[in-house]
Amino acid sequence: MRQEKNENLTENASEQTGSSAAPEKAGKVGTEKKKKFKQSPTASHLPEHGPVGENGKEVLLSLRNVDITFGKGDSAVRAVKNASFDIYKGETFSLVGESGSGKTTIGRAVIRVNPLANGEILYKGVRITGKIPHSLDREVIRNIQMVFQDPAASLNERATVDYIISEGLYNFHLFKNEEERVKKVEHMVEEVGLLPEHLTRYPHEFSGGQRQRIGLARAMVMEPELVVADEPISALDVSIRAQVLNLLNKFQKERGVTYLFIAHDLSIVRFISDRIGVIYKGNIVEVADAVELFDYPLHPYTRSLISAIPIPDPKLEKHKVLFTYDPSVHDYSKESPALTDIGHNHFVYGSPSEIESYKEIRAKGVPLKSITILPDDAVAPPEPEEAPVDESQFDREPLSDTGNPWYTVASFFLAPLGLLAGLIFKKFRHKRNAKACFRGAIIGLCTLGALAAIYLIFLLLALL
């Protein structure tokens, strides 16, 4: 069923960012300085339905040229770079990548936690990022919920399960009387496999799987249309993972919920996703239907992720040859990369020459083999040598070592403390801060000594 559903999914290149030229423009700014994205107008309320794409499906969520940056100036970190993709109503769109690639950052941006440095996010065709009306903000919170990765950290340890699940109902007044509220909460608790008597308990009294069920019940009781599932099963054992995934699939069938599923385990993503997006260091490198992506993983990073999937047979796993991704194979100094549609609803990030080679590979129609198993008598290829460690990186000055002039001013008036602070900064390699403290302390001591000398001279003159 899932495979047939995946094969019937279609997406036009124009829908990748809302316009036909947007994917091309997205990549051409790779290393160049980007112009400020012209945002779409917002509205006071969400429409009943979103825009319909050329494939006849309703576009529920659209990311257009999204940039997310943390910090300012030289210490700024660009966590997400020009991300663009669409999510259709009723589907499961999975975002996969290694740790630190920007998956959770995008998910938190969708629920308006992380602000955007550039670009915009549209929900049902309405911009929900940046400054929006209060009424629209409440509707977004009501319609988009999130299931967090760590069930223990995302639940209030001092609140009962009843209050945790009911908090959204209280905030949005989604019940007529207390009897209806209790009925909704008890029904949702039973839906996720817990018992009504659990409502009076606290989160620390439950196991990890039960806590994740509570988090899922808290999100689903709001009856959202979009759920951002941020690695909801990564902290659970195998048997509990299957139960949580079955619950997610159950809610999708019964309520038509749309999922943005964030994960790094492709073995699970393969069987629950309609479409998959692969992200590497903030860049969306490949987007395709689940079956298409596993049959034709064109980007080298996607192939490396697939080759890392464990094989249940220990003998085969022992003789498996991993495909290692080397970013140096790309030369973007002359040609700017872009996320381009190569046909079959398949988008790949690459330079024009790389895109042409990807199209040729896909045109052959021969599925690519990402996992290689050596015969028992074969000699395993030597492992690549590790690159030498650049020891100079350990001597780099910390980012907080700015030599703030206020250190000099404070040390001038408090010279002994300034000398002590300078010694502490010097011990932790804050050279500029230490220099500022020493400078202020020395000037302060010299000034104090000069004033003392002048005082003594006037005192001697007075006595004589």
Question: Can you describe this structure in just a few lines?
Answer:
This protein has 464 residues and is an alpha/beta fold.
CATH homologous superfamily of the largest domain? Answer: P-loop containing nucleotide triphosphate hydrolases
Query: What radius of gyration results from the CA coordinates?
Result: 29 Å
- The CATH class of the largest domain, by name, is Alpha Beta
Helical coverage, percent range: 25-40%
**What's the N-to-C terminus distance?**
108 Å
Number of strands: 14
Largest sheet entry? 8 strands, mixed
The CATH topology annotation of the largest domain reads as: Rossmann fold
Strand order of the largest sheet: 6-7-8-3-9-10-13-12
Task: Report what the structure shows.
The protein is an alpha/beta fold and 464 residues long. The protein has two domains: 2-158 and 202-373, P-loop containing nucleotide triphosphate hydrolases (Rossmann fold); 403-463, no CATH class. Helix content is 39%, strand content 17%. The chain has 16 helices and 14 strands. It has helices at 2-8, 22-28, 103-110, 134-143, 161-172, 178-191, 208-220, 238-255, 266-272, 290-295, 300-307, 314-318, 352-364, 405-413, 415-427, 431-463; strands at residues 59-70, 77-88, 92-96, 118-123, 126-127, 144-147, 226-230, 258-263, 275-280, 283-289, 320-321, 338-341, 347-350, 372-373. An eight-stranded mixed beta sheet has the order 6-7-8-3-9-10-13-12, with helices on both faces. A four-stranded antiparallel beta sheet has the order 2-1-4-5, with helices on both faces. A hairpin with a 2-residue loop joins strand 4 (118-123) and strand 5 (126-127). Helix 6 (178-191) packs across helix 7, helix 7 packs parallel to helix 8 and helix 15 packs antiparallel against helix 16. The protein is globular, with a radius of gyration of 29 Å. The model is unreliable at 1-33 (pLDDT under 50).
